[in-house]
Known about the structure:
12 strands; extended; four-stranded antiparallel sheet; 7 helices; 2 domains; 28% helix; 307 residues; alpha+beta
Amino acid sequence: xxxxxxxxxxxxxxxxxxxxxWGSYQYVSxxxxxxxxxxxxQGNHELINNIERYQILFHAKRGVQELNYDxxxxxxxxxxxxxxxxxxxxxxxxxxxxxxxxxRNGGLHPLxxxxxxxxxxxxxxxxxxxxxxxxxGNVLRPQDSEVDLARILGSNRSIYLNQGSPYNxxxxxxxxxxxxxxxxxxxxxxxxxETANSNPTFTIxxxxxxxxxxxISGAASIVLEYVSDGMENGVDTEVQVNKLFEEYIYAYxxxxxxxxxxxxxxxxxxxxxxxxxxxxxxxxxxxxxIHPGRLLMNLRGQNKIIK
Length: 307
C-alpha cells in the first residue's frame, strides 16, 4: 500500500467507510507485487525476460493461494442461522474448515464432525424398486432422501452422547436437555472418546456446498471458521499479502517461470526452488509471533500439581 497520512488512515479522509484503511499498512496489494516484479526482477539483464504481465499475474495468484492454504493462517469467520433443513450454506470463498461452533447462551460450543453419514441423495422408484425417469430420460429425484428426513426430524439414532443417543431412554437424570446416569459416563468400560460429546454434530457435503447438522434446534446460530484462497471473490484489486511474505511471492513467481521454460539449466531452477523454500520457512518463523510473554504464560503452569 502507498504511504498515507494519519487523517487518511484513521478517518479515510472523511469518506465512508471510515475504517477502510485500518491495518492496511501490514499488507501489500497484488497490483504492487506484479508491478514490482516487472520493474525489478525481469529485463534484458535478468534471468527472466520477455515475460508478459498476465503470466506474472497468474503465478502471483497461485503463490497467494498456496500461502493461504499453508502458512498465512488468516482465518475468516462467518456467523449464520441454519435453515429448517438443518443446513449451513458454505461461503463462496470456502476452501477448508478450521472450527465449527454453535453460539448458545453467550458462548461458543465447538461441534464434532460426525463420522456417520447423515445425508444422502436418492432416486424415485416404483413398487418393484425400478428407477423412474422423466420424458427426457433423466432420473427422478425426491426433495429429501430417507436419510435426510431422519436427520431433519431427529428420528435417527446417534452414537454420540446427545439427544439422539440410545442412553437417553435409560434410567437417569435429565438436566438442561442432557442425560446423566448413575454410572459415570467418562468411566464406562469401552467408551469411545471420539463420540463422547453432548453437542450436536455436523457433516460437510462438499458437492452440495452445505454443512448438515443433526440433533440441533431450528434457527440455531452457527459460527464457521474457515480458510479461503485469498482471491477475494475474483477482485484483483482487493487481493493482499502480508508484507512478511512479499519476498516469498517474488521468489515463487521467479521459480514458477524458470521451471516452466525450455533451455534453462537445471542448477538455475534448483537454486530458485531452494530460494523459494528458504524464504517461505523464514516467513513462517516471522509470522509465528513467538513472544517472551506468551512463553511465560505457558511456563507458569509447570509448577501445577498433577494428582
